[in-house]
Predict the structure of Exonuclease domain-containing protein.
Amino acid sequence: MYSIVDIETTGGVAGKGRITEIAIFRHDGHQIVDSFQSLVNPQTFIPPFITRLTGIDNHMVKDAPTFEEIADSVRALTLDAWFVAHNVSFDFNFIRKEFQMLDEYFERDKLCTVRLSRKIFPGYRSYSLGNLCQSLEIQIKDRHRAAGDAAATVRLFEMLLRADTSALIPVD
């Protein structure tokens, strides 16, 4: 089982920044079997440059649930699954930090679609999500929004699964 995750944040460093949006697609290796997405009230100011990038502003998250209020969903959808993300350390570290702030230990086995793409699809000029998806003709709807980027990562991951002739991706 795989949980394909994308988040948007108030900034680039876990601990200083907070999550403003999350999307999780639980995938059984063939198809999406469950999903969750939500804006998240970061309980801190969203800088203007982040709003310009994501379109998420302070007003949008004012009445959104806090991470504590969605933690059960995040925990459930990632439990007993590989935590998959494009640049997995970024997403994972933010989520782990949010759980630490709730005095909870969060650990999952991780798979990075950047690293997998470099091995399975060598030779591309850039492995950023936008450039790689363009090269592989994967359409991204709502770029720099959690659900849009996570959905594109699902399509990328499915391509990686099909092309993985060296068994780099663990399967159940």
Summary: Residues 2-163 form a domain with the Nucleotidyltransferase; domain 5 fold (CATH 3.30.420.10). The radius of gyration is 16 Å.
